[in-house]
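dude i think i finally got it to work??
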Amino acid sequence: MAVLTTGLIENNPVSGIRPSSTLTVRLRNKDLMNAVVQIRGFYLKGTAKIEYVLDSITLAPGRVVDTHHYAQFDALEFRFITSSDEVEVLAWGKNDVGNMTVSYHVVPVEIIPPGMEANEQMDTVSADRIYVANSSSNNVSVIERKTNALITSVTVGTRPKAVGVNPVTNRIYVTNQGSNNVSVIDGLTHVVLATILVGVSPEELNIDSKTNRIYVTNHGSNNVSVISGRTHTVIATL
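look at this
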């Protein structure tokens, strides 16, 4: 598995023309097995990064896929989570007539200097599973870590955002930004056990496995919901 980023791309207009109006991403699977790649795109608004692209693509061995994304922002960043280290990711900008204007370096997240970007929550990797939230299809992909094979897709709420795992209880928690709730998935059966109503537009979550409590940040209502992992209920709002 690899987590890659373009870093912060400055795309301010020069004489009224931006260097890039479209960002093209090329994915190439060099592995002998299927690979899954999640693409996340953000633009900068003040000091906040706003997600506007969230997609997941499955690549057969040897397959090459190009995706094209709107890029007319002053600053933007793209991140990629690959189930295999053998996936090559390239990115470049194009102008209004479709000509390449600039090639962007795609590097592992860990080598980006601290302070250059906000700490975005990644999708979750357990001991033998990778869980990928798919916002456009309202489900979570469960991937076998050793083989990169897709085990199943679990339907959750609207616009799933973040995924977290409690390794003690083997429960997976998914924030659903569009339906204002959290889905609880059984890690053994891949069945949704509960759907918990929280605040408005839940995004990040943190799990305290010692207390079996889940803390959900609600971006739209500016508060935090505290969930009991035992009863699957909200026990406090902070």
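The longest strand covers residues 48-59.
im so relieved honestly
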